[in-house]
Amino acid sequence: MSETLLPKMGSEDIISRPVDIEVDAAGLSCPMPLLKARQGLNKLQSGQTLRLLATDTGSVRDVKSFAELSGNQILSFAEAQRETAALYVYILQKA
Asked: d(Cα 81, Cα 60) in Å, to the nearest integer?
């Protein structure tokens, strides 16, 4: 995951950080985490934030690409171990 170049935070910090909306896409396969994040961002005003929880490893690549293409910003990213799968946590800010 070293090549992702996402701004990292500790998993406890990112999970407790206040956001405007949270989208739990844990357990969903690609492309659902990205689609759920997009739906959540569509509900927000410019500058508001969304926390995305995902377990799909493809979300690391997908969310980064989506943010670059859409102009939204990834403010922080963390990876934590959750039961038997990794949990990827993103804080996105709507453009």
From this structure: 15
19-28: pLDDT as tens digits = 999 999 999 9
User: Could you confirm whether 30 is annotated as catalytic?
Assistant: yes
Strands 49-54 and 73-82: unpaired
Question: What's the sign of the alpha-carbon dihedral 10, 84, 24, 7?
Answer: positive
Identified catalytic residue from 30, 32, 80, 86: 30
| pTM of the entire predicted model | 0.86
68 Cβ contact list (under 8 Å, min separation 6): none
Question: Which residue range forms the structural domain that includes residue 48?
Answer: 2-93
**Quick one: DSSP state of residue 19?**
-
What distance in Å separates the CA atoms of residue 38 and residue 3, rounded to the nearest whole number? 24
- What CATH number did the domain enclosing 25 receive? 3.30.110.40
